[in-house]
Amino acid sequence: MEGDTITSKEFYSPEHDAGIIDEQVLNNFILRVNKLTFKQTFLDNAFARISKLNTLVILGTFALLFGGAYLAYEFQDDFEQFNLDRMNSTIGLSFMIVAGALFFFKLSFFIYNVVLYFKYKPIESVSDEELPTVTVIVPAYNEGKLVYDTLMSVVASDFPEQKMQLLAIDDGSKDDTWYWMQEAKKKLGDRVEIFQQPKNAGKRHALYRGFNLGTGEIFVTIDSDSIVKPDTLRNLVSPFITNENCGAVAGNVQVLNNQKAMLPKMLNVSFVMSFEFIRSVESMLGTVLCTPGALAAYRSSAVFKCLPEWINQTFMGQPSDIGEDRAMTNMILKQGKTVLFQRNSYVLTNVPERYTGLYKMFIRWGRSNVRENLMMAKFVFTNFRKESKAGARLLYINQFLSIAMAYPFLLFMLFFIAVHPLLFIASTFAGILIAASFPVFFYAKRHGISESVWAYTYSILYTFGLFWIMPYAIATAGKRGWLTRELS
Questions:
Q1: Within 88-199, where are the H helices?
Q2: Alpha helices in 335-405 (DSSP H)
Q3: Measured between alpha carbons, how far is 257 from 423 in angstroms, rounded to an integer?
Q4: Is the dihedral of CA 373, 374, 380, 384 positive or negative?
Q5: Over 50: is that where the pLDDT of 11 sits?
Q6: Number of structural domains in the chain
Q7: Residue 326, in any domain of the structure
Q8: Is this prediction's pTM over 0.70?
Q9: Residues 215 and 352 in one domain
Q10: Long-range contacts, stretch 391-394, CB < 8 angstroms, 24+ apart
Q11: What is the pLDDT of residue 391?
């Protein structure tokens, strides 16, 4: 542990060549040993408690799922009667027809996704000579020492030094972020340029400054709480060389702090599904819908074409201060460019460890999703690019339906709970057992079985603890605010 190392010089008095122990030094030494022992014991106990809690949660998850499946089997007659009652009413029948059609579409779309996934292959890195010049932009706000670690990981990349420009921009932080940027500057010298915004103006404005200062053919944006692997940058930018129409590339985001708490473990499984499956499919259609803030690359010429519109973007008359990554992706797609995903370009990023931070993050993403779906509707059904547009339109329809059905399904859920609470519980847990099995198997195949079962727990949390996010995001889509940027 840093700062707690004990050396022989602390044990023996320097005045006694014979090595006679000084009483005061000995007492200090004993205090230090006790302190270290206490720290180690505390950590061991903490990890033991976490492990026990995780085990209990997983066991509780399976108890709920299999209990729900058993109840669903026992209540078969009740389910049939419930459905008959719905079919005998106009509203109920209409809802069942819509729900059935939606289920058929989602199932067909899922099968289509599986086929596309197996066809997907990431583009291999091009040679050093072929690699383009890049400007890596790291905007930071209240990140503390994490920004130092981010910058160190970027400089450690297997990327030609003469082809990389690294810019770090402190967006008026209230903590010691600027200090750690200066420490990185001392360590890295000319390898990094650091800038400090006069006041906090938001991530979009920090990126805007970086775009205008950048000289690279490709802009790479990395969140300041993220760590990139050595081959990440070269893999990320290689599609721009192999595909002249490529306007942006999304990186593969995984969770950095997934050993610290339960929520990051769940989110890690969710991220793998979201990136390695869903974005692989979107990449096959040339239409990755969102290049993540944690790691994304943009062709500089495409950025400058939409930069004025992007920095001045508004929603309901208010400046947009969220969803800068989704907005940039939309504007580049609108130019007729393809947006791809590189599964072999990894970044590890911190995620919320508490429910409060989690729902705030999801609200921000939900509001951005609503806003940018409205924007995408303006061009996705036009002749916006030469290549096939069917895939882009199908992806849009799928996402639009998820938003459009948020309120009908919320109302149905509340009705179902009020009329038949036991049937709701039984069907919901049985449904989760079936639906969440695919993410479990997918994660197990890609990264091992030990953590994969968290997909079941996450599905329960989302169904019962986060179901309100999308309806709330729709109702408050015009609200501003990052929600999770301030100090704890």
A1: 90-119, 146-155, 177-188
A2: 355-376, 390-404
A3: 38
A4: negative
A5: no
A6: 2
A7: yes
A8: yes
A9: yes
A10: 391/284, 391/285, 391/286, 391/287, 392/285, 392/286, 392/287, 392/333, 394/109, 394/285
A11: 96
**C-alpha triplet 131, 132, 134: angle, nearest 5°:** 120
Residue 313 has pLDDT above 90, yes or no: yes
Provide φ and ψ at 167, rounded to 5°. -120, 130
Domain boundary among 366, 382, 400: 400
Name all contacts of 420-425 with Cβ < 8 Å and 24+ positions apart.
420/78, 420/82, 422/71, 422/75, 423/75, 423/78, 423/79, 423/82, 425/68, 425/71
* Residue 80 confidence (pLDDT): 86
From 55, 70, 89, the end of a domain falls on 55
Q: How far apart are the two ends of the chain, measured CA to CA in Å?
A: 25
Of 267, 289, 456, 278, the residue nearest 348 (C-alpha): 267
CA 473 – CA 371 distance, rounded (Å): 10
Q: How confident is the model at residue 26 (pLDDT cuts 50, 70, 90)?
A: low
Residue with tokens 């360590």: 187
Three-state secondary structure call for residue 391: helix
Q: 107-133 in b/e burial notation, b at 16+ Cβ within 10 A?
A: eeeeeebeebbeebebbebbeeeebbb
Asked whether residue 77 is domain-assigned, the answer is no
What is the reported pLDDT for 91? 80
CA atoms within 13 A on the CB side of 367: 22
The helix (H) or strand (E) run that includes residue 236 is: helix 232-242
Distant-in-sequence, close-in-space partners of 378: CB < 8 Å, separation ≥ 6: none
pLDDT single digits (tens) 332-374? 999 999 999 999 999 999 999 999 999 999 999 999 999 999 9
Q: Per residue in 57-72, pLDDT tens? A: 999 999 999 999 999 9
State how far the Cα of 174 lies from the Cα of 186, in Å rounded to an integer.
Answer: 21
**Token reading at 393:** 């339109």
Distance in angstroms (rounded) separating the CA atoms of residues 459 and 456? 5
Q: Cα(452)–Cα(440) distance, rounded to whole angstroms? A: 5
